[in-house]
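Aminotransferase class V-fold PLP-dependent enzyme
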Amino acid sequence: MDQQDIRHDFGLRPIINVSGTMTSLGASIVVPEAVSAVAAVLPQFVEIDDVQKKASQVIARLCGTEAGFVTASCSAGITLAVAGAMTGSNLAAIERLPDTTGLKDEVLILSGHMVSYGAPVEQGIRLSGAKVVPVGQATSARAYQLDGAITEKTAAAVYVVSHHTVQYGLIPLDEFVAVCHARGVPVIVDAASEYDLKGFLATGADIALYSSHKFLGGPTGGIVAGKTELVRATYLQNSGIGRGMKIGKEGMIGTIAALEAWEKRDHAGIRERETGYLKLWHETLNGRPGVTALIEPDPTNNPLDRLKVFVSPQEAHITAWDLADALASGPSPIIVRDHEVEHGFFYMDPCNLHPGQETIVARRLVEELEKARQSNEVIATSLERRRNRRAEAQMRWPN
Ligand SMILES: *Cc1c(COP(=O)(O)O)cnc(C)c1O
């Protein structure tokens, strides 16, 4: 390991991330512009409302909207935006939350959007004191169901754009907005991990929420963007339930710097570099016994592809999940994207690599696959045992 690597000083494993932008792995590589802005502001005093005014201008420009601010996370943004829709600018109501007595407090969400990004989306809604009203079924939702769920108590509707959600049979965002707006219900879009900063608000949605620390390469934070009145009501929650979700000056300034860098980012050049990594791994894997790799586009149309790697245990002498675990061990641990590994495949995401790591990844793939081929038996841990081992490790923390 590189002696300059701070992970060495803390006894942390020098993982290589081909999983994607994961909170559990430290999110993303923060862009140099944000790193230096964070370091420069940390020793200075600033007037926070003025920093947030500056953030508002930059967010408005990049998102093609009226206003915005930075909070602790996208998850915090969900809670605060729902709170803002319930209280408006009523400071007394803001201080009373999560007691919603006298307020509209029902929040609609499609059943197929009630997913977990590491915590349940609907808990982020309930944290404000709001009541969650699921609409439709897990894999189907129609406009009449949404319309029929709106009552005089409806405060807002939350729409989730993510690979985690059900990807078919649900109401598209523009129709969702049209139904809600016809009944005077504001729409809050959770677009935490999406590259498109303008498209969701362009449907007429009132607020869009993004994570600073995902594709933008900012420090940990959440971006709230949208129409001035609701953004202001959301911002005012900082003197209520938002206090425990506060972000510091470094998170605000770092997010502004990351947004400004995003405007100048060489999107085509970065895509080309990522495509090069995928081609290298594809060439490395194809033709190996029991391994089939193919390049697949992102399910929510972000401008990125991933390599989908199928492993046939009989021929490769190892299961997809045992290969994932083997890659994650040793002195150069590689973490793949294994959310669906029970189906016999994992993904490799090229977005969070430092140049040069792609060849380490290719070498480790070859090493582990050749080792497995030499094994007389198929390396096959039971999935249940693997799952239980992870759950037990979690319950043993910090030991
Ligand atoms: C990551 C994610 C979140 C949470 O974002 P944080 O900023 O990490 O709190 C919320 N919703 C979706 C769809 C996500 O992917």
